[in-house]
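Quick one:
INPUT:
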């Protein structure tokens, strides 16, 4: 956590991402190879799923916060004190090492994506808390694991009943820039699962 009121063992449903990773495998996009597509990533999480997860977290009695900006660092080392302070000054609320590139790939694959963030520690910025160690993270994660399962058990039936359509499921509708006529056949074939419904057969 990068803020006092998002305390260890709290649950946060983040609604924004700030990508400070460098280069990860797999790639950050399915596209390329002669097919250019730019998806909207202004809201990187599925806000409909977020609302359901937050509601579920409250239902199971977790101390939950709805929204927050998650800065994703490259890792695997934790942040320096300077990085931690600067991430706070930039307006980030949480720091972690996951959600990139999977949030981008999920959007390109038109899948709704959301995260249940479990606060384990106060990173390295806090004056009166010990700086984060792997031991601290694992201990608090284990404490929170059961809460996480309860949230999923409560959320999935709600999502199943209420969430039938969403902008996430149409993310590629206006994203493909390349003229379909000039997309290399091999690229088109490789990406058919994602783009086939948007590209008229030539
Ligand atoms: Zn969605």
């Amino acid at each position: 956590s990068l803020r006092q009121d998002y305390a260890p063992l709290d649950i946060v449903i983040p609604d924004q991402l700030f990508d400070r990773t460098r280069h990860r495998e797999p790639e950050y996009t399915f596209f390329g190879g002669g097919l250019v597509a730019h998806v909207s990533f202004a809201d990187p999480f599925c806000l409909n799923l977020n609302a359901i997860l937050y509601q579920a977290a409250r239902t199971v009695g977790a101390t939950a916060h709805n929204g927050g900006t998650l800065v994703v660092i490259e890792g695997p080392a934790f942040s320096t004190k300077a990085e931690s302070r600067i991430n706070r000054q930039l307006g980030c609320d949480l720091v972690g090492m996951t959600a990139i590139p999977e949030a981008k790939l999920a959007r390109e694959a038109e899948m709704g994506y959301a995260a249940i963030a479990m606060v384990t520690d106060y990173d390295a910025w806090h004056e009166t808390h010990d700086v984060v160690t792997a031991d601290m993270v694992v201990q608090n994660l284990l404490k929170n694991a059961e809460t996480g399962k309860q949230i999923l058990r409560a959320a999935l039936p709600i999502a199943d009943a209420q969430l039938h359509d969403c902008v996430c499921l149409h993310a590629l509708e206006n994203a493909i820039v390349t003229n379909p006529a000039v997309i290399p056949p091999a690229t088109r074939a490789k990406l058919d699962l994602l783009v086939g419904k948007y590209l008229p057969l030539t």
